[in-house]
Amino acid sequence: MTTHTLEKPRDLGADNNPNRISLDEDYLDTAQAEDYLRARWRIELSAKMLTLRRSFGKAPKFLKVGAAVRYRKADLDEFARAAGLSTKGFDEPKREVMTDRERAQRRAGK
């Protein structure tokens, strides 16, 4: 995980340090990240599950500042896109859905 340095917004941009984080960016705590994923991406990932995923080193990316855990919206969006999701066309499946019969016919070359 990348180590970031938190700085006050007035100090940002002076040296264009890529590891410097603006406190003006949208940071969400775990409960807010749960709500964001549900509202924007329709992902049912509870705060408890986010906590478990963190402990096992799984996505989404997060920042730890002291005891506080924060998620950036951009990282949550990246996590959802990597899962093959889109904010558009929720009524249309992102993956091809086949019945068992269709799957068997495809395997048989029909």
Strands, count: 5
Number of helical stretches of at least 4 residues:
4
Computed CA radius of gyration, to the nearest angstrom: 19 Å
Strand order of the largest sheet: 3-5-4
- Helix and strand sequence: EEEHHEEHH
Q: Which band does the percent of strand residues land in?
A: 5-15%
Structure notes:
The structure is a single chain. This protein is an alpha+beta fold and 110 residues long. It has one domain. The protein has 4 helices and 5 strands. The protein has helices at 30-41, 47-55, 73-82, 100-108, and strands spanning 5-7, 20-22, 27-28, 63-65, 68-72. The strands form 2 sheets. The protein has a 3-stranded antiparallel beta sheet. The longest helix has 12 residues, at 30-41. The protein is elongated and about 60 Å long. The chain starts with a strand and ends with a helix. The model is unreliable at 7-14 and 89-94 (pLDDT under 50).
